[in-house]
Design a protein that fits this description.
Structural class: alpha/beta
Helix content: 25-40%
Number of domains: 1
Shape: globular
CATH architecture: Alpha-Beta Barrel
CATH class: Alpha Beta
CATH topology: TIM Barrel
CATH superfamily: Glycoside hydrolase/deacetylase
Distance between the termini: 10 Å
Strand content: 15-25%
Radius of gyration: 17 Å
Order of helices and strands: EHEHEHEHEHEHHE
Oligomer: single chain
Low-confidence stretches: none
Length: 232
């Protein structure tokens, strides 16, 4: 079985970024996804350049922080903060032209870093929201990178990063017997979504998911990879 350990929220804060780098250098994390509007995005880019073996994708954002594109009227408020939250499925469908303009701005900002784009995923899995499916596929094709698995995209397997996405390594699901659980899954390739971090004041202010990130970091740095697993 091929297993990819990806760390979300790269660049959200310095503590998150340092946690991800530690989980990469001392643990099983081999890829991460960068938030181009993160509070520590410049620091994260610098750290990525210092660790070229860490694969970096983009964590497209529509549900946190401020937009990169100005002049958006429907998806942001007058201060440029995204109107959409993690409850987006209960909200009205966004203006697709505005989402496209913003996500292209995020992708262009990523390209300007000089880093190689590994794959596309998103904050709060918003790329898996059905109204955004065609846009996501268009961007994946244009930028020639795969996309994180989402149920809305499962019929487009040629676009997907892996056959399956493991979401259970979170909250009470953080466990050192992770590989025993993965072994029971009928999949050739699985992405394990993770959120390692050192908790800093900025993270406490921005996220309700805090101390568990340090628990994730500890486990990710102690996992023993069995012979039947090929880390991607």
């Amino acid at each position: 079985m091929k297993v990819l350990f990806n760390a979300d929220d790269y660049g959200l804060t310095k503590g998150v970024t340092d946690g991800i780098i530690t989980a990469h250098t001392k643990g099983v994390i081999s890829s991460t996804t960068l938030m181009m509007n993160g509070l520590a995005v410049d620091y994260a880019i610098d750290q990525a350049r210092k660790h070229p073996e860490l694969k970096v994708g983009i964590h497209l954002v529509l549900t946190w922080g401020k937009s990169l594109r100005s002049g958006l009227k429907q998806i942001t408020d007058t201060q440029g903060t995204f109107r959409y939250k993690n409850t987006y499925r209960e909200m009205e469908v966004p203006d697709l032209l505005e989402v496209e303009a913003e996500w292209r701005a995020q992708l262009e900002a990523f390209q300007n870093t000089g880093l190689s784009l590994h794959h596309i995923d998103s904050h709060h899995h918003v790329h898996g929201w059905e109204p955004l499916r065609e846009l996501v596929l268009t961007l994946a094709k244009e930028y020639e990178v795969p996309v994180r698995y989402a149920p809305s995209l499962k019929q487009h397997s040629s676009y997907l990063l892996t056959d399956m996405l493991w979401l259970e390594f979170y909250e009470d699901g953080i466990t050192s017997n992770l590989f025993d659980q993965l072994k029971n899954e009928n999949a050739t390739s699985i992405e394990v979504m993770t959120h390692p971090a050192f908790v800093d004041d900025a993270l406490r202010h921005e996220s309700s998911y805090t101390l568990k990130r340090e628990e994730e970091l500890e486990v990710l740095c102690s996992l023993q990879v069995p012979e039947w697993v090929e880390l991607l």
